[in-house]
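Agenda item 2: NAP complex prediction
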Amino acid sequence: MKYTQGMLRDDALKGKIIAITGGGSGLGKSMGKYFLELGAHLAICGRRLEKVEEAKKELERATGGKVMAASCDVRKPQEVEAFLAQILDTYGKVDVLLNNAAGNFISPTERLSYGAFDAVIDIVLKGTKNCTLAFGKHWIKSKKQDKVVLNIVTTYAETGSAYVVPSAMSKAGVLAMTRSLAVEWAKYGIRFNAIAPGPFPTKGAWARLLPGDLGEKLKVENQVPLKRAGDHQELANLAAFLVSDFAPYMNGEVVTIDGGEWLQGAGQMNFLEEVPQEMWDWVEKATRNAGKKN
Ligand code: HXC
Ligand code: NAP
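Presented output:
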């Protein structure tokens, strides 16, 4: 058994209709592929129709599953409502909303224009709000139970982070919404959870967060105690569990999957990782003697 393999039984998502925003690339596409393998049907969207159509073909070819692809800009409520209507026309229902679409880039904050800030906030915070409101209102009105919203956030939604401030503000807002609605909409049979991934290589993220050879130079894996980046399948395994009927008691949770990355930056004494192994005998002696001297 390995984390690069699927974890759940083959029919774990049979009969589920799962909508994935930004499902045409990166992590959205990888999670979607595994959902299809587990028997779900998908509806994926992005701003560019050719890109999601291409992903639809690739996913259907790889899994034999069914995918509806639509162009939908999550910043525009009318397009979100049209996406929902198209899903209901195609499948007659929708069970899961996976808010995965995002925009981000690194920049010193003082270099950002008002528009640059809004570009990220409009996709991540307001786009997630638009989708959640449209799907949630539909589920509440139609009195459908056992529905799930899964939001992809980041570990810096809790800690904040320099150089990605619009994204950190937006993801923090998405996490607040996750926890708020987990309580408020539980009575309507809608569960809310979030995943906070560490570094999972994708073209979209790497081009904007580690452009050029920055990834090589900064050695991202050294920020992770487990000394590796995440594998898409291990994220897909977690997401599949959270949206499945095996997780009905999980509500309002954010699950971090980052190899311990954020904790490595947080612990006050973590810098001791730099102490060479051969020095620890001397350190032990010194600390044992500390009490004898004073
Ligand atoms: C400074 C920038 C900029 C940059 C754009 N702008 N890029 N400013 N540095 N690198 C400014 C523009 O000058 C403009 O300002 C405003 O932002 C809007 O720019 P547009 O290009 O018109 O925006 P738009 O086409 O809406 O594109 C949105 C985007 C883009 C976020 C800028 O990168 C995008 O489409 N991203 C989608 C995919 C993505 O980002 N994936 C990675 C997610 S990774 P003015 O002043 O003229 O209005 C992720 C990982 C998190 O979230 C955690 C990892 C550990
Ligand atoms: P990605 O491939 O760039 O995915 C982002 C997707 O969102 C793209 O398919 C993009 O498609 C879509 N999108 C952007 N703006 C949109 C809009 N206005 N309307 C609809 N769709 C839109 O990057 P990724 O790495 O897979 O990121 C996926 C999620 O994981 C994001 O929420 C990200 O914050 C999160 N995350 C990633 C990492 C990582 O290491 N990769 C770490 C932590 C969190 P179009 O451009 O065609 O619209």
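Discussion summary: The chain has one domain: 17-293.
Owner for follow-up: CH.
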